[in-house]
């Protein structure tokens, strides 16, 4: 772990470490993440619990908002999250989560994320609203 000199934030944050998220692509308003569906996230049915999938999306979308901050010292907080689960997420699967900003301004950003297998099978979609707060 290190501190980002531009933002002063821990990179990667503890939540990303816990969830196993690794950023593989980053640009203004778009990020792509990979993660392994670890067995510790399995529900009694033997698939990844939906709240974990939603947490992957939340972390990806929040980080995406920061990429579009254009040098501003901000922190973001999620004010709304909606997740749709399209297929069960198998334990052990290598997954990709792509997050993008759909629309936004100085105070609010609207985002979307998709979770898919590395071969492109869609597993979940999410949308979120993030409030951008100036850091001092």
Description:
By secondary structure, this protein is an alpha+beta fold. The protein has one domain (2-134): Roll (Thiol Ester Dehydrase, Chain A). Helix content is 18%, strand content 46%. It contains two helices and eight strands, in the order E-E-H-E-E-H-E-E-E-E. It has helices spanning 14-19, 50-67; strands at 2-3, 10-11, 22-27, 30-36, 74-85, 94-104, 108-117, 122-134. The strands form two sheets. The chain has a six-stranded antiparallel β-sheet with strand order 3-4-6-7-8-5. A two-stranded antiparallel sheet has the order 1-2. Strand 7 and strand 8 (122-134) form a beta hairpin. The longest helix has 18 residues, at 50-67. The chain is globular, with a radius of gyration of 15 Å. The two termini are 22 Å apart. The model has no long low-confidence stretch (mean pLDDT 92).
For the record, the CATH class is Alpha Beta
Order of helices and strands: EEHEEHEEEE
Spans with pLDDT under 50 lasting ≥5 residues?
none
What would CATH call the architecture? Answer: Roll
General form: globular
Number of individual domains:
1
Structural class assignment: alpha+beta
| CATH-defined fold name | Thiol Ester Dehydrase, Chain A
- The average pLDDT value, as a whole number, equals 92
- Can you give the helix content as a percent range? 10-25%
**Rg on CA atoms, Å:** 15 Å
Short description:
The chain is of the alpha+beta class. The protein contains 2 helices and 8 strands; from the N terminus they run ββαββαββββ. Strands 3-4-6-7-8-5 form a 6-stranded antiparallel sheet.
